[in-house]
Amino acid sequence: MDFIIETLEQLNDPLFFKLLFGVMSIIILAVILGFPNCPQCSRKIWNNGKVVDREYIDTTPQKSDGSNDLRYKRSGYTKILREWNCRCGHTFQKWIKKI
């Protein structure tokens, strides 16, 4: 019981609230900056958009004959083409690299 009381007393420290406010501000800022802007009217689009196309880019080292070198792990990333529709009527697409 004493441990709980000591922990609650430590949470009343002003430094704790400053750190909590700083971390939450960074998270909220990252979420806001993660959404795209319409290139025509500069409004923020608050949805994830529709996936139009996917493409896997293979970055595995290759042998001289063009096949993958089996000494290395297979590596690569996926590129996703997303499409957004703005309220102003403009539709735009953007490639996003997904690791």
Low-confidence stretches: none
N-C termini distance: 46 Å
Instruction: Summarize the amount of helix as a percent range.
Output: 25-40%
**Order of adjacent strands in the largest pleated sheet:** 1-2-3
DSSP, total strands: 3
Features of the shown structure:
99 residues; 2 domains; three-stranded antiparallel sheet
Quick synopsis:
The chain has 99 residues and is an alpha+beta fold. It is 31% helix and 27% strand. The protein has two domains: 1-34; 38-99, no CATH class.
What do these coordinates show?
The chain is of the alpha+beta class. It folds into two domains: 1-34; 38-99, no CATH class. 31% of the residues lie in helices and 27% in strands. It contains two helices and three strands. Strands 1-2-3 form a three-stranded antiparallel β-sheet, with no helix packed on it. β2 (76-85) and β3 (91-98) form a beta hairpin. The radius of gyration is 23 Å and the shape is flat. The relative contact order is 0.16. The model has no long low-confidence stretch (mean pLDDT 82).
Topology:
Blueprint (H helix, E strand, L loop, with lengths): L1 H10 L2 H21 L15 E9 L17 E10 L5 E8 L1
Antiparallel strand pairs: 1-2, 2-3
